Amino acid sequence: MNNIDEIKNRLDIVDVISESVKLRRSGKNYTGFCPFHANTRTPAFVVFPDTGTWRCFGECNEGGDIFRFVMKKEGIDFKEALKMLANRAGIQLEPLTPQKIERNERADLLRKILEEAVVFYRHQLLKTDEGLKARSYLQEKRGIKPGTEEAWGLGYAPNSWDAVLNHFKRKGYTVRDIIDAGLLTEKDDGKVYDRFRHRLMIPIREMSGKIAGFGGRVLNPNDVPKFINSPQSILFNKSAIMFGLDKARKAIRSANQAVIVEGYFDVIVPHQEGFENLVSPMGTALAETQMRLLKRFTRRFVMALDPDAAGQKATIRGLEVARGALDHEGDLVFNARGLLHYESRLKADLRVSTLPDNLDPDEIVLRNHDEWKTIIENAQPIIYHVLETLVEGQDIDDPRVKSTIASQVLPLVKDIASPIERDAYRQYIARTLKVDERSLMETSVSNPIKRRKKQKIKGQPSINPPLQAARTSEQENINRIEKEILAFLSIEPEHKYKIDRFLRSNDLSQISLNDFKHTENTEIARIIFDSLSQDKQDPIDYINVHVDLSNFTTEFSHPPLPEDNEKKENAKIRKLEEAARLVMQVRQINTNQEIKELRFLQTDRIDQGNDKSVDKTLQIHMVELIKKRGLLDRALAKPVSID
Ligand code: UTP
Ligand code: MN
After folding, report:
1. Domain of 206, in residue numbers
2. Which of residues 424, 442, 460 is at a domain's end?
3. Counting beta carbons within 10 angstroms of the beta carbon of residue 76, is it exposed (0 to 12), middle (13 to 18) or buried (19 or more)?
4. Does ligand 1 have an atom closer than 6 angstroms to the CB of 143?
5. Is 413 left (phi over 0), alpha (psi -120 to 50) or beta?
6. Which of 73, 314, 419, 475 could form an S-S bond across to 284 if both were Cys, CB 3.0 to 4.6 Å?
7. In a domain, 461, yes or no
8. C-alpha torsion angle, residues 321, 322, 324, 325 (rounded to 10)
9. How far apart are CA 324 and CA 336, in angstroms?
10. What is the dihedral of CA 241, 246, 248, 252, to 10 degrees?
11. Is residue 459 part of a domain?
């Protein structure tokens, strides 16, 4: 559960509102005079504890959740409201301390140095003799075109101990600044020299595009190590950065798949060749934080790692981490078994592909595009891959080998939720190990399905869930739909206009902040709308910089787009239509709810013996709502069609 849900769960909206509004209980709900406008004689403000919402049916005609109330009442923004309510709920939010602010300022300065270093190294690549040699290596040996080289900001670090040192000193930076940026190495005796010498320079960026450091590859094959990376610093945390994610982000989302490769060039070259959903963890270890980053964009992963034996082991290790990151919050399990357990629930799909002929991904892509496509399409589920790796080079006619391998791979199978999948895996393992399938059944200790059945018999016969739970699930449903709409708009912000035109053609109003009742969603919608009314950045970049999309992108199920261009266009339109339908659907749910709430207020007034003239405004309101519902019902009764 995220902080926002947690706050909503812990705090009673009636408690919070009753501090500033005198509330009178009426059935399950509470009525009062709206604090946001000058009041007439009758209360038009209602709090609904079941849904955790409030609404004013009077002059302001507004409503929302607990956050919206506090923001409006105190005249504060969402961040401040979050702080205030978190405090009240006893939930710890990360504070922005003066130390943190100072650190942020320092990081900005160091990033500025690194951006200048990109320019410096590029100049060296393009304008010096040694640099031009490095450039021809890129073009001739690695198949890198000038446009690619420019897009990735590749450069050349000159073969000098002090070129960078002097360049940045001349620019007025202190030696400390240059060291902290990771461009110099400091010896024990205090002497400093250029960290990167006679190397190809590859800028490493965060997901947002902010620079974090460099990778430097040897040009002279005798130099070691083959790669030098920026040192760990406040900018560069190797295990929290996925190389290429800033450029692969969009493609990963739209393909709903991330291909994980090992090297820098294994990302850059396929990108150039039109395969853009690739990233690299920059080395063999795949850290949990890196997986968390990726998880924001997809839950479908293909690992295309090194073909050699060491690489195979690394792949298995990588898988273990991948599973850990996808596990549910606060209960990380860092092994293959842990995630398999949750794979079906989380809809995570992890596959592994084995690369042929001892080639790296960049080499395969350059050799043959179709071959690469096929390799990725044929990526195997983990269990097959693990089995294959365990069997390799072993004498599987040896009964002890059979039993060792079975004992390693069977626990993985046991945890798979789907009995059909489980059976299929067991059959496969039996065939591979040349044993009778039944002998594998015996080794599996417990069967989750049987357990569940037993519980059902013993457990209470179907008791209706309490009403509260039913209502809450309606709120959850609304929340989910809102997030799905946002997930769509965050990928295709400009499609808002298409949806708006469609809504208008059905006499419905355009998408607005009002369509989002959960304040955290309203805030994201605001950023998406802002992204469309600014012209400094691509809207998607604007959105990515301003909002942490991790809360909802993965909840939006978007099947991969087909390869065929025409089909791809069709699939995009289907998604657009689906988003438009969701907008109408959530409006329908909200309108029905509002009608119910208004009925409640009308009844309450009659009970209180209020005069009819005041009720007239409520009556007009009701007519409007019913008209709106009619339009929505009609529009939703036919298929949504947008072109
Ligand atoms: P590889 O040794 O497989 O290199 O390391 P590569 O990417 O295939 O390099 P090319 O194709 O010969 O240019 C894979 C990745 O591991 C990291 C780098 O990110 C590299 O791309 N690595 C490797 C290091 O960080 N340091 C090293 O010393 C070696
Ligand atoms: Mn390589």
Report:
1. 106-236
2. 442
3. middle
4. no
5. alpha
6. 314
7. no
8. 120
9. 8
10. 80
11. no
Is ligand 1 within 6 A of the CB of residue 260?
no
Q: Read off the tokens for 105.
A: 């300022």
CATH number at residue 60: 3.90.580.10
pLDDT of residue 339: 39
Q: What is the pLDDT of residue 618?
A: 87
Q: How many domains does the chain have?
A: 4
Ligand 1, pocket-test mutation among 245, 264, 267, 355, most atoms within 8 A of CB: 264
Answer whether residue 553 shows pLDDT above 50: no
597 lines ligand 1 (CB under 6 A): no
Is there a single domain that holds both residue 278 and residue 360? yes
Pocket of ligand 1 contains residue 158 by CB under 6 Å: no
Handedness of CA 497, 503, 509, 515 (dihedral sign): negative
Residue 268 belongs to some domain of the structure: yes
What is each CA distance from 519 to 67, 73, 197, 250, 263, in whole angstroms? 6, 14, 52, 26, 42
Write down the residue that tokens 């273990």 correspond to.
320
Mark whether 478 and 373 lie in a shared domain. no
Task: State if residue 264 touches ligand 1 by the CB under 6 angstroms criterion.
Answer: yes
Q: How far does the centroid of ligand 2 lie from the alpha carbon of residue 308, in Å?
A: 12
Q: Which two tokens stand for residue 431?
A: 């065939």
Q: Using one digit for the tens of pLDDT, what is the confidence trace for 380-392?
A: 887 787 788 778 7
Closest to 380 (Cα-Cα) out of 410, 417, 341, 354: 354
Kindly state whether residues 263 and 142 are assigned to the same domain.
no
Q: Distance, CA 310 to ligand 1 centroid (Å)?
A: 14
Q: How many residues does the chain have?
A: 643
Looking at the CA of residue 360, tell me the nearest atom of ligand 1.
Answer: 8
- Residue after which a domain boundary falls, among 236, 264, 293: 236
Both 290 and 407 in a single domain? yes
307 lines ligand 1 (CB under 6 A): no
| Owner of token pair 């949750």 | 342
Helix 336-346 with 399-414: angle, nearest 10 deg: 40
pTM: 0.60
> Rounded to whole angstroms, how far apart are CA atoms 302 and 374?
12
Q: What is the pLDDT of residues 352-380, one digit of tens each?
A: 888 888 899 999 999 999 999 999 999 88
Q: Which residues pair with 227 in a beta bridge?
A: 217
Query: Distances from the Cα of 591 to the Cαs of 58, 63, 496, 629, in angstroms?
Result: 17, 12, 21, 6
| Ligand 2 centre distance from Cα of residue 634 (Å) | 58
Distance between CA 140 and CA 180 in Å, rounded?
A: 35
